[in-house]
Structures are given as C-alpha cells and as structure tokens.
Write a structure and sequence with these properties.
Blueprint lengths: L6 H12 L3 H8 L3 H7 L3 H38 L5 H36 L1
Helix pairs in contact: 1-2, 1-4, 2-3, 4-5
Length: 122
C-alpha cells in the first residue's frame, strides 16, 4: 500500500480486494460500510485500492500466461481427436480461433498506439 493510508485503511483495501461486497469487507475489518464509502472518496485510499487491484491483476495475468501454451495444446488435442464428439471439437476450434483473432487485434492496437505515441513525440 501507499504510505498515505492508515493501517485500518490498508486492511480495508485488502478486504475490498478479497470480499465480493463492501458490506462483507467492512464486516471483515470491523468497521462500518459508511466508513469504507467515505474512504472511497479520498484520493489516497482510492490510489491504494487501485494499486492493490493492479497487483492482483498482474499476478492473475502472469498465472494465465504461464498456462496458455498448455491450454492451447489441450484445445488442439481435443480439436484434432476424431474420437471426440463433434461439438467438443468445434468448441475447441472456435476457442482457438477466437483467441488467435483477439491476439492479432491486440497486436494491431498496440502498434497503432505506439505509432500515435511516436507522433506525439515529434
């Protein structure tokens, strides 16, 4: 967390990350929902929450990426296995195609962003 939040606020940030509702997060911290909502109006608290969410997102992304090759291999095996039911094979093929198109689209968007950033530097 940042140094600009109290230990109780830091605890609330962790609870907000792990609990599905503000009510549950407040109960976990032993504070009122109203207090959390009041803190959510403070830039330092929001910044700490955003930072915590980004850290969780990075960990999840890293975990998914590290397993992506195995997942693609499994999909390829299902798609290629003539003993599998046709709906399973079609589903695997569709998943692979969807993922490939998203990857291509993402690469193109990143290239455009890079080009725009270069234009801004000129």
């Amino acid at each position: 967390m940042t140094g600009n939040v109290s230990p109780k606020q830091s605890q609330a940030v962790s609870a907000l990350i792990s609990c599905p509702t503000v009510k549950q997060a407040a109960a976990e911290c032993g504070i009122s929902e109203r207090t959390i909502y009041r803190w959510l109006e403070k830039p330092d608290f929001v910044a700490a929450l955003d930072k915590a969410r980004q850290q969780v997102s990075k960990r999840i992304t890293k975990a998914v990426i590290s397993r992506a090759e195995r997942a693609a291999k499994v999909l390829d095996e299902v798609m290629s296995d003539v003993e599998m039911p046709p709906p399973s094979r079609v589903s695997a093929a569709k998943c692979l195609l969807d993922t490939a198109f998203k990857a291509i689209e993402t690469e193109e968007i990143l290239k455009r962003i890079e080009a725009l950033e270069k234009e801004d530097d000129l």
